[in-house]
């Protein structure tokens, strides 16, 4: 019996089997050099420290000195990422490996949910193509293996989009609205970069109301209660109830003084490099297909995601210009691309149809080529020697970690102080430690990028691990 004569349930089983195979292969590939590519770095280490503090002491805080912590108001991930990692730390022990395994889980679920949304909105072939494009997309591994908020936030975003798709197709009741509110809340608070989901959801709700989707009072109440439960917990746990600085941080996360110059530089650079051009190509096909279909046939979940894409893209221009700042828009555009292309294939005839369909293999080849050229981005093993070294330090050895949060995460002693230059405008340190010049009580200074500030009259260089330097207090000073 040919595939065309299969029952629908058989085709669905085949789709799910193919999707499972793609997810398994993606996770297997991500497991290669799991800890070394990308190597641990500044932001990730801050989140790891926060998760360990949550697992060991049940507090949303960051350690900066013995018996001294600071709140997480400057940390750009929320409890939807920290809680799962803390839970794994509590059960299996605190380790870098355990945290990265959690991220493998998020990565696999992200691919699966994106494909399921695409399948339910556009059909099985679109779902398979979405999974293939995700599984070959190199930045998904670069950002997804790191303990960062992007991929977990995408997981909740696609899950919320599926719930919204159910609502727009007629499913009603307090349960589905509560689920949507809960998932939308989790996505929005995973990282401030997801806050544009809120105006996107508001616009989708207004359009839906105009189209006749008018929730009952109990449905609105279920949505609001679930959303506020999540959002309120985030405000209380991370900001102590004071939300005033969050939007300011989102508007200018690096405290840049010359925002206008940065915006112009990013605008010019956006049309010169392969990665942003790849994103623009995908977005162009998506928007062209929506234009051909007409606004009235645009689904609420599509509108929800498309508005988020454009808001994220606009927000990118006021950052330092790293591509991971439009990564979220890029990934969602790829999720929508197969549905757009397959619609255009059905819309055109003859050679035009074949030419349009060729877009998907071309994007797949481009993804595969980029993955082949740089299979293990940000690869590095120097952190392993650093981990071994700091774990051999005596428990009572006073150590100062200056801009090396991964060093403090690996450290197993109880006498460490931390000095963090988060941005040009924000420095985090313990009481009494305004600069490294005041670090005279530390026997060791483990420093990255701040070596010029280490008082040479008191400390002598001892070891180097890549860009991390270790300084030891001079014997004369000790005596």
TrEMBL record:
Hydrolase is among the record's keywords: no
Keywords associated with the record: Cell membrane, Glycosyltransferase, Membrane, Transferase, Transmembrane, Transmembrane helix
InterPro entries the record matches: LipidA_mod_glycosyltrf_83, RgtA/B/C-like
UniProt-annotated location(s): Cell membrane
Residue ranges crossing the lipid bilayer per the database entry: 14-32, 70-89, 96-116, 122-140, 147-167, 179-208, 220-236, 275-291, 298-316, 322-343, 355-372
One GO process term, biological-process aspect: lipopolysaccharide biosynthetic process
Membrane topology: Multi-pass membrane protein
Top-rank taxon: Bacteria
GO molecular function: pentosyltransferase activity
A matching Pfam family: PMT_2
Domain Glycosyltransferase RgtA/B/C/D-like: 85-234
Flavoprotein as UniProt keyword: no
A GO cellular component annotation in the UniProt record: plasma membrane
Primary localization: membrane
PANTHER family in UniProt: MANNOSYLTRANSFERASE YKCB-RELATED, MEMBRANE PROTEIN
Name recorded for this polypeptide: Glycosyltransferase RgtA/B/C/D-like domain-containing protein
